[in-house]
Amino acid sequence: ALEYVDEAVTDLFNRLDKRVTPVPTIFTETFRSLSECRNTGEGRFIGCAHLLLVWVHSHFWKVDKVSY
């Protein structure tokens, strides 16, 4: 279901090696939820879209002085 992470998922990450991070899973679930809201035309994203955008920019747009 949307809007929460199942306890089984959090338990899985607790049992895995500490080098494994749940961030991609949470990001994917958020993206899937946003897509579902858009496709159905119903509901709305319950969360902070601005905070999500800040997080995405801080993790995916790290480019060091690229010369074009």
Automatic annotation (TrEMBL):
Lineage: superkingdom: Eukaryota
The DUF7745 domain, residue ranges: 3-62
Signal sequence region: none
Name of this protein: DUF7745 domain-containing protein
